[in-house]
Design goal:
By secondary structure, the protein is of the alpha+beta class. It has helices at 7-14, 48-54, 70-85, 125-132, 157-170, 182-197, 208-218, 248-251, 262-271, 294-308, 324-332, and strands at residues 25-34, 37-47, 58-66, 91-94, 96-97, 103-104, 106-109, 136-147, 172-176, 228-232, 237-245, 277-285, 313-320, 336-347. α5 (157-170) crosses α10.
């Protein structure tokens, strides 16, 4: 079941003047019409920062929606390909709305599950439309789920003991985000985000303006204890996790994407601890600290604190399907793969 994004949020995202993404990118938007009715849409995107970081000549498409008609899909995709080709780009890649820092990927397995916060959801026939149009898989992504929809589950004592030993062995501690120093914490996230993810396929560093913009949007829904930082005893940070309650749980009955009363309902449920699902958006450890079980310590911390708030189910992702380290780490916390996505390419 698809939970549509709030229209106001999509409008702000597409606004070239308000969204700092457009400080290093440009995009154009196309609609397909038949007999006066809109039957499809697409965005063509030139992310200059991505191409600078990866030394690529890649254009992107995103915000793709289409009826089950290849003629319509081909017209939309060809329009996007033509637009990026005019800018000297040789590959059209997507879906990315607008980049890997936002909704990213085409759902290919797990259609019977609802989409979580900031994750895409599409009908099964989209993959057929894209492959028929000449697109091939560039990269696979997965999401993992853990916990129970029947209520919070406390981690087993053995896990707590293992985490305690890991932290003691390496002289580490875990603390929550401090909302009283919110801007300082945002600056810390900026440094860790670039350092922890710079080698990831498709990673594009967020500019200071983009992170500030996102932090402003997320601040009202941040639960400090679900944003743990792991530090050395001298206070040097080496990793963090960012988990948000799944606001889509509150939006599930909001079928038209309108802001009110959906947003008020979501905030009421958040404040009253009525949300029972969460999504781990980010979890990163500095390269020199990986392979020591510190990721498991963060998972355990998030799991324990989420359970205290009545949250019993969580999604981790997205993850690159070949990222065996993080997948195995989540598997040790009883997470399993339950959704798959693809990023697809086609020469322009």
């Amino acid at each position: 079941m698809h939970v549509p994004p709030l229209r106001a949020e999509v409008r702000a995202l597409l606004d070239r003047k308000a969204n700092p993404f457009f400080e290093h990118a440009e995009a154009d938007y196309f609609l397909a019409e038949r007999d006066g009715q809109v039957v499809g849409r697409i965005a063509a995107i030139h992310n200059r920062l991505h191409n600078e970081v990866h030394d690529d000549q890649v254009g992107f498409f995103g915000f793709f929606e289409c009826i089950n008609d290849f003629t319509v899909a081909r017209a939309l995709l060809d329009a996007a390909a033509s637009w990026v080709r005019e800018r000297g780009l040789t590959v059209l890649r997507g879906p990315a709305s607008f980049s890997s820092n936002e909704e990213f990927g085409l759902l290919t397995d797990g259609f019977d599950t609802p989409n979580t916060l900031m994750m895409p959801h599409n009908p099964p026939y989209y993959l057929t439309l894209l492959t028929t149009a000449g697109f091939t898989k560039a990269k696979g992504l997965v999401c993992m789920e853990g916990g129970s929809l029947d209520g919070p589950v406390t981690p087993p004592p053995r896990t707590a003991r293992a985490v305690e030993l890991i932290l003691k062995r390496y002289g580490l501690r875990i603390r929550s985000l401090d909302m009283r120093r919110f801007q300082e914490e945002v600056e810390l996230v900026k440094r860790l985000y670039d350092a922890c993810w710079e080698k990831n396929w498709g990673f594009v560093p967020m500019t200071n303006a983009e992170i500030d913009h996102l932090a402003k949007q997320l601040r009202p829904v941040i639960v400090p204890e679900l944003v743990p930082f792991v530090e050395r005893e001298d206070g040097t940070p080496i990793g963090f996790g960012l988990t948000l309650p799944d606001l889509n749980e509150a939006f599930r009955t909001n079928r038209n994407g309108r802001l009110f009363p959906a947003a008020l309902t979501a905030m009421w449920k958040l404040k009253r601890r009525k949300l029972t699902r969460a999504r781990i958006l980010l979890l990163g450890i500095l390269p020199e600290w990986r392979g020591k079980g510190i990721d498991s310590a963060l998972y355990h911390t998030i799991w324990s604190r989420a359970a205290e708030r009545g949250i019993g189910w969580g999604e981790g992702g997205w993850l690159l399907e070949e990222n065996s380290g993080i997948i195995q780490g989540l598997a040790k916390a009883d997470f399993s793969i339950y959704k798959s996505y693809q990023i697809l390419d086609r020469p322009t």
